[in-house]
Amino acid sequence: MLYTGKGDSGTTKLFGCDQQKISKSSEIPEALGALDELNAFLGYVKVRAAGESRIKEALHNVQEKLFVIQAEMAGADKHFAASDIEAVEKIVNEIEKEIPPITSFSISGGTELSALLDVARTLARRAERRVIAVGETNLCIIPDTTRSYLNRLSSLLFALARLANYLAGVAEENPKY
């Protein structure tokens, strides 16, 4: 069954917790929703990445890790390892060696894929803020590895956006201020 009706009153329960009902508008469901929104959007971006297998693979790996964060926040015994963060850093470092150095801020766009990755980056930053807010309210412990992964995630998506433009031969456009 795809629905239970248990949340019709605006409350929900988290697994692994004391099964106390909480408001769907409270910090944890808000963070879980932001992570889910990001994950769903990354699925769309992955489809639009067509022949860019490196980008598709990186996005799929991120999607897998977002499920770990969601499970962790909902009370499951799931966690990140330092190697997960190092894997993201390695991808970003490899991309930085391939593309021209950053000389200024750049205007989003260039290619459709780059623009979509920039939107994903902003969704990742929002999800990160929501997860940090949960930790600051002491509703749930957010491990340092999770915080670090979310912080690196926006860098990864930015690097992938720049890579998408580079692979398409599209120069970045800088704002004229």
Keywords:
single chain; 177 residues; mainly alpha; Hypothetical Protein Ta1238, Chain: A; two-stranded antiparallel ribbon; transferase; ATP-binding; Corrinoid adenosyltransferase; nucleotide-binding
Spatial strand arrangement across the major sheet: 1-2
CATH level-4 homologous superfamily? Cobalamin adenosyltransferase-like
Give the ordered list of helices and strands: EEHHHHH
Mean pLDDT: 90
Q: Give the biggest sheet.
A: 2 strands, antiparallel
CATH class: Mainly Alpha
CATH topology, by name, is Hypothetical Protein Ta1238, Chain: A
Q: What gyration radius follows from the Cα positions, in whole Å?
A: 18 Å
Q: Give the overall form.
A: elongated
What's the domain count? 1
| Number of continuous helical runs | 5
Q: Which class best fits the helix and strand makeup?
A: mainly alpha
Give the number of DSSP strands: 2
- Classify the beta-strand content into a percent band: under 5%
End-to-end gap:
54 Å
Low-confidence segments = none
CATH architecture: Up-down Bundle
State the helicity in percent bands. Answer: 55-70%
